[in-house]
Design brief:
Elements (H helix, E strand, L loop, with lengths): L5 H28 L27 E5 L14 E4 L1
Antiparallel strand pairs: 1-2
């Protein structure tokens, strides 16, 4: 049998108790946060861009910009007209 002095035994028991206490706390606080009223998480945010690089298939100058700052854009929407 392995001999362990009393101070090491006490330290091991304290560590085990601490791990159990932390695990129990995490388990119950996690359960409280994931209640039925929070099953569907909705996140809202605002994206601010100060500089945008845009590439086109033809060279030319921008003739008209179809959007303004703060507008919502969709995929495939024409953002600007280029005079080639």
């Amino acid at each position: 049998m392995i001999k362990i002095n009393v101070s090491k035994r006490v330290a091991i028991v304290l560590v085990i108790c601490l791990v159990i206490a932390v695990g129990t706390t995490m388990y119950f606080t996690g359960k409280a946060r994931l209640g039925k009223e929070q099953e569907n998480l909705v996140v809202q945010s605002t994206l601010e861009m100060t500089e945008v690089n845009s590439n086109s298939q033809i060279a030319g100058q921008i003739k008209h910009i179809n959007i303004r700052e703060g507008d919502t854009v969709a995929k495939g929407q024409i953002l600007a007209v280029i005079d080639s």
